[in-house]
Amino acid sequence: MEKKELLLVPWIGFEIQVIRSSNRLFIGLKGKVVDETKNTLVVETGGVRRRIPKGVCVFRVFSGKKTFDVEGKKIMFKPEEKAKHI
Description:
This protein is mainly β. It has two helices and six strands; from the N terminus they run αββββββα. It has a single domain (3-78), classed as CATH 2.30.30.210. The chain is globular, with a radius of gyration of 12 Å.
């Protein structure tokens, strides 16, 4: 999968890590995306689910052997509407 394709698909099932955020509490958080809304990702980490706002974070996405860094602002759409906006 390439970065442009990653921006077009729902992220449920992807492993991610927050690498930058205006909220220090999110930096370093890593886990599997279990839900996605227009403004948030729900990540399961250590058996706990955390809701992370997309707009204040930069995410590292692990897709197979590749990793991509993505600004949350670029994916602030409902999963089913991403292709219309990119």
